Each structure stands twice: as C-alpha cells, then as structure tokens.
Amino acid sequence: MKYENIDEKFVWKVPTKPLDIEKLVKVNSEMRYYHFDVQEINVQDLCKQNDFFDWLFKKHPYRAGLVKMDPNTLYDWHVDHLEGRTMRGVCINAVVTDSPSLVMFSENIEKLASQGGNEWQADIVPFTYEKNEVYIFNPTQSHSVYNFENTRYLFSLQFGENVHRLTYEQLVNEVKTEYVAGK
C-alpha cells in the first residue's frame, strides 16, 4: 500500500535529488535517543553531496542521523513539541531502506480512550515515504509509525532551533520561496 498524496499540513516533499545514504559518512556508533537507536551522520559530508542540505545548514544548523526501527514494531501516538521532549517544530526525513512502513497522522487522537478520551475511533491520515526522497515533516501533528517485516532506517535532521524559533510552516515557506524559487 502506498499513501503518498497527503495534505501539506503534515508533510511536504522537497524537490531535491534523492539521498544516497551509502555515500554518507557515519560519525559514531549507535546511541539511544527517544527510544530509538540512532547513528549520527557527518553533516559536512552531507552538505558536499547535496546543495539543498548545504543551503539549509547555512540558514538553520542541524544534526543528522539514521534512526533505526526494528521489524514488526510501532512507535506510539505522540507529538514532538511538548515540554520535556525534543520541542521540535519541524524536521527533515527520508526513509532509506526497503521496509514497508506507515506513518499515521490524526488531528483528533486525543478523543481516543487510550489517550484519555471517551471514543474508540479517530480519523487517521496515512502516509508512506518514497525511498530516499526528502520530506519536511510536521512533528507538531499527532503521529505514530508502524514498521513491518524489515528493519527501517530513517534519515532525520534535528535542528538547533526549537518550535518557538522554527516551525514547520515557516520552513516549508522558506524552502519554497528561497530555495526552490532561487533555482
């Protein structure tokens, strides 16, 4: 199943060349980060290989990593901008392995009994990444991840700026008006 056509308030596909993860230099061994094993990627190497990431780093410094998700697992419903968490307002992601997986978004997940509400059903918006394609991802929307039979690796950027300084809408607008329009 592929769910690639999705409302822009959740994800936006960046018009740049696909990632070639095999050519990127891994900085260190895996470390635990928010319940995931993550391997850091050399940002300078990434910037040399892709003009979008070079342009982006000059505007909004970031760290890059590969996030590992084991087969047949899910990452529960959450948002990334709550106090005590990452406070991310935006991230850049790309799935770099052939692992069937789904991201589910919901704008009314809080009504579910499992989330403290009284309902047993909520509306969902499914999304599947195209392998190696780069997306701006809105982590302020409730989302969960479902991975199936293979290990899933997600390339992801963590910006130095939090949700109060850099939002999803702001970054999408900057990429459209400055990076895309300037090409």
List the topology elements.
Blueprint (H helix, E strand, L loop, with lengths): L10 E3 L17 E3 L2 E6 L1 H7 L1 H9 L2 E8 L3 E6 L12 E5 L5 E6 L18 E3 L7 E3 L4 E6 L4 E8 L8 H13 L3
Antiparallel strand pairs: 1-9, 2-3, 3-4, 4-11, 5-10, 6-9, 6-11, 7-8, 7-10
Question: Can you offer a commentary on this structure?
Answer:
The chain has 183 residues and is an alpha+beta fold. It contains three helices and eleven strands; from the N terminus they run βββααββββββββα. The protein has helices spanning 43-49, 51-59, 168-180, and strands at 11-13, 31-33, 36-41, 62-69, 73-78, 91-95, 101-106, 125-127, 135-137, 142-147, 152-159. The strands form two sheets. A seven-stranded antiparallel sheet has the order 1-9-6-11-4-3-2. A hairpin with a 2-residue loop joins strand 2 and strand 3 (36-41). Helix 1 crosses helix 2. The protein is globular and about 50 Å long. The termini are far apart. The model has no long low-confidence stretch (mean pLDDT 89).
Taken as a percent bin, the fraction of beta residues is 25-35%
Morphology: globular
Average residue-wise pLDDT: 89
Cα radius of gyration in angstroms: 16 Å
The number of strands is 11
**Terminal residue distance:** 33 Å
The percentage helix is 10-25%
Count of helical stretches: 3
* Main sheet: strands, sense, barrel: 7 strands, antiparallel
Parts with pLDDT < 50 across at least 5 consecutive residues:
none
> Strand pairing plus helix content: what structural class?
alpha+beta
